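input
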Amino acid sequence: MTLFEIIILAIIQGLTEFLPISSSAHLILPAEILGWRDQGLAFDVAVHVGSLLAVIIYFRKEIVDLTIAWFSHGFSKVQTNESKLAWMVVVSTIPAATFGFLMKDWIALNARTAIVIAITTIVFGLLLWYADVKAKQVKTVNNIGLKEAIVIGLAQAIAIIPGTSRSGITMTAGLMMGLDRESCAKYSFLLSIPIILGAGLNATLDLAGAEHAVNWNELAYGAGFSFVAAYLCIFLFLSWISRIGMLPFVLYRLALGCVLLYMVL
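output
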């Protein structure tokens, strides 16, 4: 790949991993519109590493607090807010990890098409709008209980379908469960850590069995630009989401879905 292609694809990954606009929908556009070749599994791993580092560094204090609380109070009768939240992250991760493991091959063969991505981009965009309009926004991350964790976890499992958007569907579920926008976003970002880590490890195992040379410069640039884009995305999204709401992202999804439909029909 050229440096320009590396930068564009890395920025797309870094931004769309956390914005509720679907990374799958965006990653097919360069190939469809510009005729770029597939970036390859190694590059996918690299940009996911960049995104993972961004969310870990941004939430480093929360991660340390949750980890300490889980080991110190997670198995006791008296739970702290942090140990409880750590357990809820685990609960929400189980459905997506299970569904992803069982269905990833079938999804890759049958659902990773432009028409599926176009439809899911529109449908789940409208669902996000509905949830945002109807949201009560009375709960914070400290109010996330077992019911909320299970609902959000099941919603996250749906995100294996291309075009759904993992962050979009988890925020949609969070809003429907009464969480405020910033808490939805924060919980979604925390949930991304085990999911991205698992996907990255799985891709790394697949890569280990591949027989081709690796361009380490491409991977380094990809990870670096993905990291910067993802970190800025998290910072700006959390700063703005309470004020701007989900409507700008919904309108963008609808426009993107219509463009994809036009391209394939």
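quick obs: The CA atoms of residues 98 and 157 lie 8 Å apart.
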